[in-house]
User: Fold this.
Amino acid sequence: MQTAPQTTDELYEALRENDRRPYGRTRTVTAEELAEAAELFGEPVPLIHALLELQEAYTYGSEPRKSPVVFARLLNLFDEQPDVFDDRLRHQLFWRFKWVANALRSLPEVPLASLRQWQTEMRDRYEKAGLDLQPYYGQAYQLAAHVGEDTALAYELWAGRTRSPLSDCEACETCERALYHLAAGDDQRALRAWEPVLAGEESCQEEPARSVSYALLPLLRAGRTDEARRLHLAGYRGCRRNPSMAGEIGRHLEFCALTGNEARGLELLAENRTLFDEVDSPLAQLDLLTGVEVLLARVETLGHGELPAAGFPGRSWTVASLRAEVRRRADGLAARFDARNGTTAHTDRRAARLQRAPLLESLELTLRPRTLEDVVPATAPAAPAPAEALPETPAELIKRARELDEQGHPDAHACWARLRTLTTAPDYVHPDDPDVGPLVRLRADLLEEEATLAERKDAHADAATLYEEAAGLYEDTGLAGHAVVARARAVLAVTQVVPQGPEAGGSEGAASEGAGSEGADPQARVAAKVAMFAEAHAELVRLHEQASGIAPYLEARLLRLRVSARGLRLQASGDSEHVPPILAEAELLHDFATRHALTGQIAAARLLRATTHAMAGDLPAALAETDGLVELLRTDGPAWHLPRALSLRGKIQLGLGDADAAHASLSEGVRLAAEWPAEAVDAATLHGELAQACMSLGRADEALRQLTRSAELEMRAGTRFDAFCTYSNAAQISLDLGRIEDCIALLDSLLVEPDVVGGELDDRLVAQLRLTRARALRAGDDLKAATAEFVALAAESAGWDDDPGSHAMIAAETAMLLGEAGEFARAREAVDQALAAHARAPRYEQVSNALRELARLQAQQQGPEGLTEARAFLDDAGRVADAARAAGFEAHGRSLDTALAYEHGRINAYAGAYDEALAALEKALGLLGEPGEDPDVAGEWAECVRLAGVVEGAYLERPAPALARVEAAASRLTSLGHTEQAESLTELAEQLRDEQ
Assistant:
């Protein structure tokens, strides 16, 4: 809190603001400061409100030792001045007797006699106030269940009583009933009791998250795995990072451990690491730590005890060391509770959880299924596994690597990776073998291989440098042919280096709609690129002409680089005049490779030829070429080119609209790619292309599996930016399909990755991930969390001077969410930011939509009192529409002018200005014109007529003209075949006739 409130009005506003914060230290500290400030006013009511907020912060911030102290002050105030407690405050006071009972029960240092004494105090107070005792019996049962004695009798005394106004909410009582049956071993009866809560029919602040955490294992035992999966995703989101729900988080960790999702469990543990320090409730600690131990024990049993794990602050932990510490602390807590209670209930319950065997070997919980091998800290991507065992001696390994490299065989990479490890060892001795050559040649080979790997990661500048170094070493050893090829590869690598600075553009992320270079003119940039590729080609030709007498396989590589340079020029220009030179170069390569029986280069020439036809837009020619290439590779090989050829054929088939054929080609490509190192055959791209084919066929689930597989392969290959982009696409598809929890779970997993947390990943890409997550939260009706994320993103995007368009879009969405929450002052600030950014980079439709929606919300929520502000929003929307019209902008749906006129009608109707409303709606109908064949336009027209009919017939009390209007419109729509759109008008006509 920056400054203490100076008036009671300021105090109440500060309390309301604090109430919007999530539970945790920030909210608790602020509540403490506000309670101190309230005392200074010397008035009991403000102090009561401040103390109630403070007790709530302690209760839900998992600080049970402090909650009873605050309640004691409230009780003293009530005893001294009962008249200042109105009905609402009195209700809250008596409700919180239960909070204190829960707090005392969670502290093992509080004697059992004191717990019973408090229950007696609660009973006496309730009886004196004339209140029903059902809540008291509820607390008596919960104490019996906690101690583990006389639970059946206590349950009957509570459950058989009628609910009262001070009873726990129905969702909480449902959970207690279900837990009673669960403790008795009756899963089915427990699940039946839980049905209304798990279905979302009953809820409260803690529910259904609490019930879900307990129901997960019974659901698995009942075979209801899909339901368990769905509830785990939604339930975990409801309790993540919440100190007051530490026990629930522990049960979600246990669920992961018992379903083959140990890696996800470790991920969730890391996400909640702050709870080790924040949870001050010993009972909640015991619940959490037991769940943590179940997870850690499972990971250690699987042989991964040395994995790093997130644990208590102050030191680093492995799974094994953290498990030992957790076991020590949890055993101690269970023993303390049992000593206090005089039973062994807590030790027994803990032992039962620890002894549970896995219920499923594997259950795919998220779109990003991971194993423990995936979370092993990686210093570098693992070397690809070769198809055959590698030679053992360095001499044979070097010979094998060069032989495979000459063929272009993918297994060459595994050989080079092994040699890199050998040569960096201090005791490496280079073979004294003339067939192997000197060490300097091997170092040149390894530099060239390193450059190739750098190119795969788009690190073209690094690749160019490495190629040049390799060329120098080759020249030192007298290998002119190898030197010229390395130098040629450096020439081409340089052309693909992305310039840094404003002219470089940006990543496709949150800023995708507004990205645009502010540097050179686009045509000038294209011309510069075309010239650069032409110069590179000329340099490659010069190098080729100077390289006389080199080995055919090296000369073929030079010819292939020449084709690539021509292809890059076409890619940059899109000019059809650049097609014939590529085909001519490809023919040179094909003829040369055929003369020298270089099968790999024959395939490469045909692949380049097919790609050129595709880039030129001649898809039938491209398909014919790839069909021939696929057949050639099936018969003559080399087999490792087949996945790439099938990939190209699949893309061409998709372009021709034959999604079934594309799916068949790409599926075969994915299957064959599995036989080779993923990087060598670009398996990640294959999976991504197969996902596109699946989407074209309406197979969304399969598409998501292929996309996430593609992303995981990119992760393993070290191309993390590409992987995050692919995951972002998967998240967006999930959201579009309504798979909201899948979308959120995937994004939550990505946003805790070390390079995201450490700020190493592109900030716009991270913003895109967060934006998608915020939209998913909104779609899932978690408006509080969605609004918080949108507000944060709007603040960050305000600093994107190179991309004001994206800020306009984000600020506009933020304003709408604030409007839904009724915070129109903050919504006005946000939409003003959107308008300012829109002035620099227009986003006509998004900003207009936001302004109209804010007008609707304010008029709907505030009626006549909000009409002035609502009209101000529409005035801004009018100016946006005027500018859009002047700029020749066309909206995707109805025109901005039509939408604006309709909204004028609607908000005037909300505010009771019916004549203005009808005039605006008639204007909207005039702009829409007569309905035609388009059902969407017909639907908009029908809604406009319907609202005009309601305003005229019901509110202006002119049913006759309203009926005539509506009947004519319904008849018109029916004659055009829009029977569905006419239904609402037909129903309204019947109502108007009844009124007449």
